[in-house]
Request: fold
Amino acid sequence: MVEEQLTAVQRPFGVSMKKLTVGLGDRSYPIWIGADILARLGEALREVSFPKRIAVVSNPTVFERYGETVLDSLGNAGMNASVITIPDGESHKDLQTLETVYDALIAGGFDRGSALVALGGGVVGDLAGFAAATFLRGIPFAQVPTTLLSQVDSSVGGKTGVNHRLGKNLIGAFYQPMHVHIDVATLRSLPAREFAAGMAEVVKYGVIRDREFFDQLATSRDRLLQQEPEALVEAVKRSCQIKADVVESDEKESSLRAILNFGHTFGHAVETLSGYGEFRHGEAVAIGMVAAALASRSLGLCSREDVLEIRDLLTALQLPTTPPPFSLEAYLKAMGRDKKVKGGMLRMVLNRGIGDCAITEIPDPETLFRNVLSEWNSLL
Reply:
């Protein structure tokens, strides 16, 4: 189980830092969650005996805001850090950008006694993590996520990778970080749309695993949108707890971990068809969750009221809930390339009410999604 601890150090706004542990035997690692804790990164890495030669991978926007704090913290902990910047945006999460990271590491003389720190959102975390997994057959890395989406999803669990032009995250590896350092104060600089996109993954955890958490999100949505630190720390902590519990049970997505893909099958199709960047990942997942809920209702796994509750919470959190107007054939083709297709059979995560879910084989996706797309507007 994930162990939660409260530190004695009170952070600004009266918010205590939280610590969780992802229990994976000798590859277990801590998650620190708090407000204004970025300056404690060096301390946290020293606690896990992180290598002292470090390359910080970031993008120019994030590094301009937080790079000095991070480098000072690492330097104060006796670490020697250099910086590798990559372009911002999902369209740069590709093999070409990955190669520039390898080039910098090789040119800089980094070896197996070195490590990477991913400072940024999901693109930086996924790409830097995959670079760490594959450079010299694997060097340590740490995640310092600066977007809500990366804090509650991509930074925890060890999924790393890049996109291919034919599909999202088709090239990657399972590779766990040594530490995850989450400072919710970094969310203050996010555009409202980016922050809302992260809330989609938070809602996902409530739908698939915890009805009480879902209800808490509904009642605290205004506090979350106003980014009250205490509300954010609690929401991020519960999201990370749920994800860590699942990862501990099924690290490499052979069974249970696939439930974390709720909303992603149709959501990834939205991203692929729209061109990466048109929709934020969380926005596409929000649309995908409504699609999954409609599919679930069609198969008798949830009620119309459940679908409406999910839709209404996503809408209240300023997320899109209707699909772009691509054809049924285009959606089916995009979903057919999804990683969750096995033996030619599409498998989807479908909610059972709110607070539970099931991984379901879809023998006739064409009929199911014809119904979903035709009922979308009439039902909602």
About this structure: The chain has a mean pLDDT of 92.
